[in-house]
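Morning. Coffee machine broken again, so started the prediction first thing and wrote up yesterday's gels while waiting. Chain of 348 residues, entered below exactly as on the submission form.
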Amino acid sequence: MRNELPFNDPPVWGLLSWAYTLGITSAYEQTYPWYVGNFIEVFANDYFLEERTEFFFDFYRGGGNEFRSNNPFLSSCNLNFELAAALTGERITDYLIDCIDLKYYPVLFIDEYYIPSRHAYQNYYCPHHMLIYGYDREQQAFLTAGFGQTMTFGKHLTPFADLERAYESIRDKVARKQQRDDHMFFFRFNTADAYAFNPESVRQQLENYYYSRTTHNLMNRNVDRYSFGLRTYDSLRNYFEAERTNDPNLVNRNGVRQLHLYMEHKQVMLDRLRYMQAKGYLTHPDELLADYAELQEQSLGMRNHLIRAFIRGKGDESIYAQLQDRLGGLKELEQGALGRLLEQLSAK
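Came back before lunch.
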């Protein structure tokens, strides 16, 4: 017997919080207006060197945890290992199968050392969340999604026995206080919710991006330690300056991830413009589409250039200087395109 829940290649997969949730919602056509009406604002942490914390560039949707009901189309619940043990006993595989039959997508906290499709397999301890979107009893395996051997996002077949070992490894470390309990999550698609594309909401978010600010969730979150919108270009350039100079306070070099998320933002902007063009929201779309196609192409090129440099073992300071220069030019290009886009939306 095989049971496979709908799961598409997600439009954003730079972080698992986006990949898992959007992999589910993008399988349902009615969610597309919500997708193109969101994922506009971005943010970055400004004090990563002073505080010796990892730098990040990411989409901003109010700072809520995407695994905890921050998506209107996903019902979400979570369990810690203590509660999971009371519910499942020693039958984690049967329990997960029961959840899938109830149309829940389990997101299990596991040790990827035991997962054959993962880069960490039999190499190093790696606590991570893994989404399960189905099972195949004949093959004795779960249908899973996540970052594979090449660190790209994809679908994989994970044997029941391997998943059980990966789960037990984390469970034992949590019990011995050697690992924080990051919980397991369960998503179910919420068919009751509907979302109509809201051009005014999009305009307000674009204004936030253009003016490097946010108005999301200010009652619950202090945002003065972050940069937003166009100012994140400066944050990215500061990050690559720290890479170039080999700053001793730089924690966990991850320039490829930052450029990948930057590229995904330009791709989402391009998706949004095409949707708005098709729906008649734009009076002069051609130049805007051309500019964002250029931004997407250039950002993809920068990401791939950095990947190739690392493969060749030539991640020297000249590459980071080039990235800083190119980001400066792309900021000017996007600032001009955004200004014209806001003029068109404000004239409606």
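The chain has a mean pLDDT of 93. Going to sketch it on the whiteboard this afternoon.
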